[in-house]
Amino acid sequence: MRQYLISNRTSWFKKDTKKTCIFCEAIKKKKNKKFLLLYEGKENFILMNLFPYNVGHLMIAPKRHLKNLEDLKESEFKEMWDLIKKSLKILKRALHPIGFNIGFNIGEIAAASQEHLHLHIVPRYKRDYGFMEVIAETKVLSEPPEKTFERLLKYFKKIK
Fold first, then answer.
1. Residue 5 reports pLDDT greater than 50
2. pTM above 0.70?
3. Mean of the per-residue pLDDT values for the chain?
4. Tell me, what CATH number does 42's domain have?
5. Residue 94 domain-assigned?
6. What is the mean pLDDT of the segment spanning 18-30?
7. Within a domain: residue 121?
8. Total structural domains within the chain
9. Tell me, what's the pLDDT at 6?
10. Containing structural domain, residue 49
11. Residue 120 annotated among the catalytic residues of the structure
């Protein structure tokens, strides 16, 4: 008999993401553990993806609710790119990935389930893909996001 590993992403898919913005909610409530909020800068913040593609999957977003990259103020843009650099250094030091995917999903057609502008940093590891990913189309993580959050938080607390 075939067995299935059911993803916890189902609750996310069923959610009406047009009514709530997880980014605005995260920065307004500032509940670090609930939203896996790692760092709050002057104009941007860093949080972990609750449904990561890989261990250490981060997202950086402006505090202002914006839809488009071109709507960022110059200061927001500069801080965002500075946080990318700092995040890469921390991820390399804490998790030792061998590469990264970094990018934006802008607009619904680009798989942006949230209209709040944000970028993804996805660490990549040797042998990312195994039997489960290829055959079962299921992502297997080596640790839960909450544990990765605890490992990374001490580094993000040191950002100046």
1. no
2. yes
3. 82
4. 3.30.428.10
5. yes
6. 84
7. yes
8. 1
9. 46
10. 19-156
11. no
DSSP for the chain reads -------TTHHHHHS-TTT--HHHHHHHH--HHHHTEEEE-SSEEEEE-SS-SSTT-EEEEESS--S-GGGS-HHHHHHHHHHHHHHHHHHHHHH--SEEEEEE--SGGGT-SS-S--EEEEEE-TT---HHHHHS-----SS-HHHHHHHHHHHHTT--
- Predicted local distance difference test score (pLDDT) of residue 42: 97
Q: How confident is the model at residue 129 (pLDDT cuts 50, 70, 90)?
A: low
Residue type, 47: L
pLDDT over 50 (residue 29): yes
Burial of 46 (0-12, 13-18, 19+ CB in 10 A): buried
Which is catalytic among the residues 57, 65, 116, 118?
Answer: 118
**CA 142 to CA 139: how far, in whole Å?**
10
38 has a pLDDT exceeding 60: yes
d(CA 66, CA 121): 19
4 in a domain, yes or no? no
